[in-house]
Amino acid sequence: MKSKENCLGEVIESTLSTWKGQCWDWDNVPAFGSLLSVESHDREIFGIVYEIQTGSLDPSRTPFAYQKTEKELLAEQPQIFEFLKTTFSCLTLGYKEKESICHVLAPKPPKIHSFVSLLDIASSKEFFSKEGYLQLVFGYEAVIGNTDELLLALMKHVRQEEILDDEGMARFIQSLSLLTGNDYRRLKLFLQRVQSL
Questions:
Q1: Which of 53, 140, 170, 195 has the fewest CB atoms lying closer than 10 Å?
Q2: pLDDT class for 45, splitting at 50, 70, 90?
Q3: How does DSSP classify residue 108?
Q4: Which residues lie below 8 Å from residue 74, measured CB to CB, with a gap of 6+?
């Protein structure tokens, strides 16, 4: 069972392939492309953040443009921030059961109200040690809209945290090449953008 202190929200919608979480604090948001985990059904389910949305908690109240800075609003009308919520949507990229990571859909979706946390560095290194998750990402192209943007955000994260070494990056590029049908132009443009991160 996850410790609440290390978590940032909980699952509010769930299917086998995608799940949505709500942040406990509307302004404490996981980054686009970050890897999250949920413990559910005696396994740890992994998901990548592909969508983030902030809006009103109450459908009858909508945010209004006050022409004031956040600092001014906090001083004059702090209550308006109590009606905001942030949700994030994740694509399932695998699960861990009995100390083994599988880059396939879990047998059951995460339970509603399961706690969601960011993956720590050690768990991230274990997850990214094989490239099976890439096949799942490409399987979601219709959901994501722009696969390359999500993969760039993911690459930024793993490079900043030094999760992938040179050999891991080489395996990632090789798998990406196969999944894009050896599309030389797409791969070249993608790698140019990775180098600029």
A1: 195
A2: very high
A3: S
A4: 81
